[in-house]
Amino acid sequence: MIKLYQFPISHFCEKARWALQYKGVPYEEINVMPGQHVSVIKKIAPKSHVPVLVDDDKVIQDSAQILDYLDEKYPEKSLTPVNPGQKAAAIEWERYLNGEFGIHVRRYCYHWMLKSPSITIPLLAHKGPWYGKIMLRLMYPKLEKLMRKGMNINEETAAESRQHILAALDRVASQLDKQAYLVGESFSRADLTAAALLAPLCSPAKYPIPEAKEVPAPIEELKQEIQPRVQWLYRWYDQYR
Fold first, then answer.
1. Which among 104, 176, 190, 204 could disulfide-bond with 182, CB atoms 3.0 to 4.6 Å apart, if both were Cys?
2. Residue percentage of the chain with pLDDT more than 90
3. 101: pLDDT confidence band, cut at 50, 70 and 90?
């Protein structure tokens, strides 16, 4: 059976989970702990980041490459358009949104969440080993420093990320004002990427991460600001997740 090494909280891992479930491909989730994941992942893949999909002797790292692999091996319900122009457009949308939603949603949310260990630790430990919360409490100061350094998270970059998110949302909204999907006339990897990577700021019903009991005020304010403009996300989660 396929194994997916992941952080449950990761929206890039949500891309891979959604693609697997959309296609009806059985798989096993291997949840790794932040910090500990480096030694685990480096044993099976060239880099330390997740998601990593393992299918017998095949090891695929990175959400875009995982979608490529799944469409090649399981062509039913393809997420990649067949038409060459639409294929190129879908891949370009995915590349753009991996940066503008993926990196910037992560940076903005973590900047505010990391200030509150009581919020962050349960989310990082979600579906992890029984000792996860204990371990994270002990290593939290070091982990916060590593995450801020590794993802370039600070007050200035968080403010910049907020603007990137809103600008990308404008671009998506402009496209969806003209048509039902970002590319062509059916759900594709472009739409899946947009919805999965923005989901942490929208918490649709089928998003598999529980909403935090407390949400830092700046994150809640951004959630409320974008709410009227993301009905497409809720529709796609309802119909395709």
1. 190
2. 87
3. very high
Q: What is the pLDDT of residues 21-46, one digit of tens each?
A: 999 999 999 999 887 788 889 989 88
Residues in the chain: 241
Residues 207 and 239: beta-carbon distance below 8 Å: no
Average pLDDT over residues 121-143: 91
Single-letter amino acid code for the residue at 2: I
Q: Which of 47, 87, 86 is nearest to 67 (CA)?
A: 87
CATH number of the structural domain 2-73: 3.40.30.10
Confirm if 187 and 240 have CB atoms less than 8 A apart. yes
Which of 162, 154, 132, 153 lies closest to 7 in space, CA to CA?
132
Residue 167 neighbours by CB under 8 Å, 6+ apart: 100
Phi, psi of 16, deg, nearest 5: -65, -45
Handedness of CA 6, 190, 206, 24 (dihedral sign): negative
Provide the H-helix boundaries in the chain.
Answer: 11-23, 37-42, 63-73, 84-97, 104-113, 117-124, 132-150, 155-176, 189-198, 217-226, 231-240
Looking at residue 212, its pLDDT comes to: 76
Q: Classify domain 84-240 at the CATH topology level.
A: Glutathione S-transferase Yfyf (Class Pi); Chain A, domain 2 (1.20.1050)
Q: What is the pLDDT of residue 214?
A: 86
